[in-house]
Design brief:
It contains five helices and five strands, in the order βαβαβαβαβα. β4, α4 and β5 form a beta-alpha-beta unit. The chain starts with a strand and ends with a helix. The longest helix has 13 residues. Helices cover 40% and strands 19% of the residues. It has one domain: 3-Layer(aba) Sandwich (Rossmann fold). The chain has a five-stranded parallel β-sheet, with helices on both faces.
Length: 121
């Protein structure tokens, strides 16, 4: 059974690159353009992992992580922050919110797949 990964980013082109990378490796991908849209997709369906940007309109990545972690079905879902932010302060905020890993854009597809396979075995 393939794993479902939610990709949350306000950049459609980035979502497309991540989607192609993941689907080529056998993952199912669902996408959202911001944290609010992503939360709406956490409706009880099985989502094994989320890859999320930090800077987005409506609801940013840190707010999304905090909100997702309050949902009983998704409390233990691993979340990888994929962002241009590399400051320690932002990383700490992400970690405090419940993010499991942090990857800085631009990224290599193999780097992303390695992180996904570790977080979502």
């Amino acid at each position: 059974m393939s794993k479902t990964i939610l990709v949350v980013d306000d950049s459609a082109s980035l979502r497309q690159v991540v989607n192609m990378t993941l689907t080529a490796s056998g993952y199912q991908v669902i996408e959202a353009g911001d944290g609010q849209a992503a939360l709406a997709l956490l409706d009880g369906r099985q989502v094994h992992m989320t890859i999320c940007d930090v800077n987005m309109p409506n609801m940013n990545g840190i707010e999304f992580v905090k909100a997702a972690k309050t949902l009983p079905n998704y409390k233990f879902m691993p979340i990888l922050m994929l962002t241009t932010e590399s400051q320690e302060e932002k990383k700490e905020q992400g970690k405090a919110a419940g993010a499991k890993a942090w990857m800085v854009k631009p990224f290599a597809p193999t780097q992303l797949l390695n992180a996904v396979s570790k977080l979502c075995p």
